[in-house]
Amino acid sequence: MPATRRALEGALAAGLRLHPLQEFACGVARMEAGSRIAEHCDGGLLSFTCHLGLDVPDGCALTVGGEARRWRAGEFLAFDPSWPHSAENPTAADRYVLLLQPLRDDVADADVAAVAHFLDPATRPPPHAAHPFWLVRGRRGLKAHGTWLGANATHVELAAGRVAPRGAAALVYPAPPSLGAFRARRDGRWAAAPFFDAEASAGEPLRAGDVVAPAYVAVDDAGGVDWIAVSDADWTDVLRDPGRLSWLPLEGAEGPLLDQVDEVAADAAPADKAEAAPAKAKVEAKAEAAPAPAGFGGGGARKKRRKRR
User: Fold this and answer.
1) How many CB atoms lie within 10 A of CB 28?
2) Sign of CA dihedral 146, 151, 156, 158
3) Distances (CA, A) of 107 to 26, 119, 122, 217, 295
4) Residue 182's closest CA among 234, 248, 243, 244?
5) Which of 17, 25, 159, 246 is least buried, going by the fewest C-beta atoms within 10 A?
6) Phi and psi for 171 in degrees, rounded to 5?
7) CB 166: neighbour CB atoms within 10 A?
8) Which residues contact 181 (CB under 8 A, 6 or more apart)?
9) What are the tens digits of pLDDT across the range 87-123?
10) Is the four-CA dihedral 165, 309, 132, 301 of positive or negative sign?
11) Nearest C-alpha neighbor of 307 from the set 133, 184, 178
12) How far is 117 from 145, CA to CA, in rounded Å?
């Protein structure tokens, strides 16, 4: 199908982004004669499913959210696979469609990387984009690991036969813009790593009322934000030298240190570096879910997860 391939290559060059975590994000899908796919929902919220009819016997139908549509040769159907959907081919001939799984317009590479981690930590994130990494303390100091094989409650498997204790490792994500900023309740100092016994960073202490816009966050096993970090370095430089991050915990021995604010103040800046509070607690930051269109090609409402304490 050279013409189809050229058309797809042109679409990719023009900005079409296929779902990199799908095993079958582009190809010809065959549905056997006399077959039926029972109603189900696909778990992914990152992409749509699109069908271009190629060889379609009359009578084949796709039903999404209770609404049925017929495939027709040369016609295009797009739908949200997170809605209940089913398919049937009651005819005596096979049905063929070109299937595509394009990413939704508002899904960023960082979103794909986050899902890749939770689906399979060994999955490589999109190239040339900031993605999660582990900060691990060892005898040779603090190191960042952008790839790993797996993790559980006790260990992180960095490579075959090489593990790090979970208590000496912190999972770090680039901070999404929707996270907003944080205002200091009281004076504090910055830490060189997201651990309560970490050395202090050099620089001026944090002052009560300072507003900080984080560049990175360290999360717990449930995805809740424990620490925020600032840096004047880009992601690749941070991986080479994680000492370029300065950290603050959301809570310390005296209670909450930082309050989340929706807007980043004009004077918000990575206040000069220094040490963190001496005890640990956890707060999960708010996050916005990607909007999901209702059924076939419609617009959907944006959902928000509430802050958990």
Assistant:
1) 13
2) negative
3) 18, 17, 21, 19, 19
4) 248
5) 159
6) -85, 125
7) 17
8) 211, 212, 213, 214, 260, 261, 263, 264, 265, 268
9) 999 999 999 999 999 998 888 887 787 777 666 655 5
10) positive
11) 178
12) 13
Tokens, residue 40: 């189900």
pTM exceeds 0.90 for this model: no
pLDDT beyond 50 at 230: yes
Sequence length of the chain is 309
Could you tell me the end-to-end alpha-carbon distance of the chain, in angstroms, rounded to an integer? 55
Q: Which residues make Cβ contacts (< 8 Å) with residue 71, sequence separation at least 6?
A: 51, 53, 56, 60, 61, 62, 77, 95, 97
Q: Which residue has the tokens 């879910």?
A: 289
User: What DSSP string describes the chain?
Assistant: -HHHHHHHHHHHHTT--B-TT-TTSEEEEEE-TTEEEEEE-----SB-EEEEEEE--TT-EEEETTEEEE--TT-EEEE-TTS-EEEEE-SSS-EEEEEE-BBPTT--HHHHHHHHHHH-TTSPPPTTS---EEEEEETTEEEEES--SEE-SSEEEEETTEEEEGGGEEEEEEPPGGG-EEEESS-B--BSSSSTTPPBPSSPPB-TT-EE--SEEEE-TTS-EEEEEE-SS-HHHHHH-GGG-EEEESEETTEE-EEEESSPPTT---PPP----SS----PPPEEPPP---TBT------EEPPP-
pLDDT in tens, 16-65: 888 887 777 888 999 999 999 998 887 667 888 999 999 999 999 999 98
Closest C-alpha to 252, from 180, 198, 306: 198
Cβ atoms of 247 and 198 within 8 Å: the answer is: yes
Angle at 56 between CA 54 and CA 61, to 5 degrees: 120
Inter-residue contact 49 to 27 (CB < 8 Å): no
